Amino acid sequence: xxxxxxxxxxxxxxxxxxxxxxxxxxxxxxxxxxxxVFARDIGCRAQFADVGRCLGRLTLAHLRRKxxxxxxxxxxxxxxxxxxxxxxxxxxLEETHQLRWAYLDxxxxxxxxxxxxxx
Length: 119
Hints:
Blueprint: H1 4-7, H2 15-41, E1 58-62, H3 66-69, H4 74-77, E2 83-87, H5 88-95, E3 99-103, E4 114-118
Antiparallel strand pairs: 1-2, 3-4
């Protein structure tokens, strides 16, 4: 007769524990990246681009769309060279595609200069 206790597999970890671990890891990476970006940019990156005056508090803007980085490791998803600091006004314009940007140095990406244009 077969001993089924030998064949039994341990229960997998509950999804909420796995998800909580992933969220904590991503939060740590995001917090470090946010500090680096705010130290680099100090203020709104669009403020001297002649695209209107800055309004409101500063926010972190990811230059890569969320859907393009979904499922990636946090270290690849939250990168300093793909994020900038924008004020609320310029961030909302950028998200609604009314304010466009382009890298002037493809290797440096957001660490280098950006070209801004109103749509």
